[in-house]
Amino acid sequence: MAIFGARRFLWRSFSTISSHPLRVCIVGSGPAGFYTAEKILKTHQGSQVDIIDRLPTPYGLVRSGVAPDHPETKNVINQFSRVAQNGRCSFLGNVALGYSISLVELRELYHVVVLAYGAESDRVVGIPGEDLKGVHSAREFVWWYNGHPYGRNLDPDLKNTDTAVILGQGNVALDVARILLRPTSELAITDIASHALTALEQSSIRKVYLVGRRGPVQAACTAKELREVLGIKDLYIHIKETDLKITPADEEEMKNSRIHRRIYELLSKAATAGPSQPSSGQRELHFVFFRQPDRFLESYDKKRYVSGVHLEKTTLKGIGSGKQIAIGTGQFENLSCGIVLKSIGYKSVPVDDLPFDNQKGVVPNVKGRVLSDNSGDPTSIENGLYVCGWLKRGPTGIIATNLYCAEETVTSLSEDLELGVLASTTRLPKLGRDGLLQILDNRNVRVVPFSAWERIDKEEKRLGSLRNKPREKLTSWEELLKVAGSE
Amino acid sequence: MSRTRFRQGHCGQCQRSPVELLSETRAFFQGAIFQKHHYFSTLGSNNTSGGGDEQKETISVTFVSKDGEEIPIRVPIGTSMLEAAHQNDIELEGACEGSLACSTCHVIVMDMEHYNKLEEPSDEENDMLDLAFGLTETSRLGCQIIARPELDGIRLAIPAATRNFAVDGYVAKPH
């Protein structure tokens, strides 16, 4: 305990010993980026922290991932904006790593670079028919209803069918199901993108299937989201009672996990609670367990359009340490639908000159210190380069997970500073923000500082107030940059 | 108001009283941030912060920080432990600002007697506790523990990130 305290003493006085400020650049302004910035600002007095994001708007998935009907989850934005308003911190939006500025250039401009840009791509299922029209990634669908500039042209067809199949049973899958099934009058007063609200108001989707490879004990969602979707007004819920049978291996899993225990209880109650048949015109939510997709089926009448999913029944097999995986049984069935949303996980994207583990989809690292290659050799470290968030751990966890992730990364950074590991760079002053802005100016990049985001924020709230919504999101680059104004 | 002060702790732009500035300067030169906390909280011990018009009755609450530092404060009846922590510059996160949409204000009640005096957590609180890091048998969300006379003397540990971290010999039992 005393050692820990002494360390903090050293870290806080670092900048008084050194004659120039520690200059840090964080790439990515979601929870990982902001929690890292907050901790660095607090731990290293005198440090200058810049947060760059390729969007003109900050906050990452808090803005573009959290569902519109979960406004309280977005309260953390208040904390993050206080960080951005710190005199030693600058948010620089519309600056894309790999396009506006390279990683090599950033490492030259700053003493420390922390990559926290998350995961902007998807795991693929890898089965035939995945490129049929009507098969979308849940990530893009979420971007679409959340007004992300890259989502506005998704244009999912919600009118050609009454059935949607969602592959996956995590919280993103439940979000998508909920947005498809909630009465649109309830969505109309959220910050959902208007193009999505219009499409949902005209949607003919009445049945949603949530398909998981394994059983109710292994479902990846959490209790709040499950409780919420089960509680949607006038929604018929269907769960096969035979799917609820548990094995000793299942019991062992539940014994060790409170979350899984409570999820199983919620699903069991829901299976027996409601009526056994939907009433006429009632919307339906079906939980399908022990099914994995084998291929997507193409429609006979509409060429290149999906018309269903060919599913294989699965059984569970223990692979040691309490884990069970799904194994195909060779028995198949078809599930008809007009739209498929794949919610099986996000995936990070590498950039030039960045070591990347393609198998795990993360940057190889030890406690946030980036390693030079995938060999796992902990001694080959990229000095001054750190990683935090999904790019470091893989695309799992909640907003709060980044709190601890940032703590670990910043502890590694602080240890490296204290032990002189970064002395060769920190000995010299760096151009930092001024250097970055000069280069960006030469390249005609229109940087969006925090004050310009505040203009966007104000305008979105103003437009929202005209429609009884907390905000009306601006969803095109042009609109966003116009309102941001030139710098 | 006090929460803003807490959040902008190291920002040179916020309005602070000379007394706080003095303590901050002292802390900076000595590097002893712990002293700053004690100084501030002793100052604050007789204050009824939070805008109460009358002298509200208070109870004694001790927070034990991640580093094992004991911080005794007085909390007005009706104030949540999260609000009390923020009013006293204690490092307790509150991402969702008390709306039961996160688990960052997770605290560990350090004795069974006080834990048992608390009302049962609601389904909503339990849903959030599912996700708390280092969850124990006596874990609760700080925003849901409201000061009452029966809770006088309650001690709350702020969990560290790692499960194995021992606070003053107190080892959290895994849930």
Automatic annotation (TrEMBL), chain A:
Enzyme category, top tier: oxidoreductase
The record's Pfam families line, in alphabetical order, gives: Pyr_redox_2
What GO cellular component entries does it have? Answer: mitochondrion
- Organism source for this protein? Gossypium mustelinum (Cotton)
- Recorded E.C. number(s)? 1.18.1.6
Q: Which reaction does it catalyse?
A: 2 reduced [adrenodoxin] + NADP(+) + H(+) = 2 oxidized [adrenodoxin] + NADPH
Q: What does the UniProt keyword field contain?
A: Electron transport, FAD, Flavoprotein, Mitochondrion, NADP, Oxidoreductase, Transit peptide, Transport
Extract the Gene3D superfamilies matched here: FAD/NAD(P)-binding domain, NAD(P)-binding Rossmann-like Domain
The protein's name: NADPH:adrenodoxin oxidoreductase, mitochondrial
Q: Which domain of life is it from?
A: Eukaryota
Q: Where is the FAD/NAD(P)-binding domain?
A: 23-202
| InterPro entries the record matches | FAD/NAD-bd_sf, FAD/NAD-binding_dom, Ferredox_Rdtase, Ferredox_Rdtase_adrenod
Q: Does the keyword Transport apply?
A: yes
Q: Which GO terms describe its molecular function?
A: oxidoreductase activity
Annotated residues for binding of NADP(+): 169-172, 213-214, 225, 397
Report the family membership. Answer: Belongs to the ferredoxin--NADP reductase type 1 family.
Tell where it localizes: Mitochondrion
Residues recorded as binding FAD, renumbered to this chain, are 32, 61, 97, 390, 397-399
Q: Kindly indicate whether the keyword Flavoprotein belongs to this entry.
A: yes
Cofactor entry: FAD
Q: Which SUPFAM superfamilies match?
A: Nucleotide-binding domain
TrEMBL record, chain B:
GO BP term, example: P450-containing electron transport chain
A molecular function (GO) term: electron transfer activity
Q: Which domain of life is it from?
A: Eukaryota
Domain 2Fe-2S ferredoxin-type residues, every copy:
59-162
Q: Name one GO cellular component term.
A: mitochondrion
Identify the Gene3D superfamilies for this entry.
3.10.20.30
* Annotated coiled-coil segments of the chain: none
Keyword list (alphabetical) reads:
2Fe-2S, Iron, Iron-sulfur, Metal-binding
Q: Which cofactor does it need?
A: [2Fe-2S] cluster
Q: State what protein this is by name.
A: 2Fe-2S ferredoxin-type domain-containing protein
Q: What is the species listed in this Swiss-Prot or TrEMBL entry?
A: Gossypium mustelinum (Cotton)
